[in-house]
Amino acid sequence: MNKILLTLTLTILYSQFVNAQSGHMKDPVSFKLKNGLTVVVAENNEAAKVFSSFTYEADLIDQINKTGAKEILTAMLNSTAASQANQVSFTEKGGNINAVTSDFEMALQALSVSVQEPMMEQELFDKYKTELIHSVKARDRFYPETFTEETLAGLTLNDVKTLYDAMSIPSKSYLTIAGNITTGQAKILAKKAFGSWKAVAPTEISK
């Protein structure tokens, strides 16, 4: 629960900072969907927007992650999200939503599609792998020492899919929602977006 509350706290602080409001945040409410997904909701009816984050347990992911796989998976998730809604984005830590209340349902559905049905075609993998190699060569951002042209050359689409499998477990995932939305509305939308989500087998991922 500490990890969930940390994520929630960051979301709440960001929401309060953007909207310059305080004192109206209700106590967080936590519940689980039938598939095991943990949802935490914090209502603030004076906030201007709704903020949400989607995260995964990192232990197993860090153990199986091959150099570059997480970066390419993040790019693929962002590509999927961009085709759905512009209020959704992904970092290597998970997905995020920044939306006005009227757009939140659409954004949450887009996040759900990105998580459950990411675009993982070979052509897209090749594109992002090439971009990552060029970025590593240019050193236009920080990369660990393990990121070299040689280590990235051996990375395959299957490596990315293996990482995705490890991350696609509802019972090890967390959804936080904070801002201008009631707890009741958030529960309904969370169940609608993620209630039917199940852990996938490798053969179920598009090739």
> If strands are numbered along the chain, what order do they take across the biggest sheet?
1-2-6-3-5-4
Query: How many strands in all?
Result: 6
What's the name of the CATH homologous superfamily?
Metalloenzyme, LuxS/M16 peptidase-like
Strand content: 15-25%
Kindly report the average pLDDT value: 85
Q: What is the CA-CA span between the terminal residues?
A: 36 Å
Rg over CA atoms? 18 Å
Give a nutshell description of this structure.
This protein starts with a helix and ends in a 13-residue tail after the last helix.
Question: Which terms would index this structure?
Answer:
8 helices; Cytochrome Bc1 Complex, Chain A, domain 1; 207 residues; disordered C terminus; 6 strands; alpha+beta
Protein architecture, described:
The chain has one domain: Cytochrome Bc1 Complex, Chain A, domain 1, CATH 3.30.830. It is built from 8 helices and 6 strands, in the order H-E-E-E-H-H-E-E-H-H-H-H-E-H. Helix 3 (69-82) packs across helix 5 (122-138), helix 3 crosses helix 7 and helix 4 runs parallel beside helix 8. It is elongated and about 50 Å long. By secondary structure, it is α+β, with helices and mostly antiparallel strands. 35% of the residues are buried. One of its GO terms (molecular function) is metal ion binding.
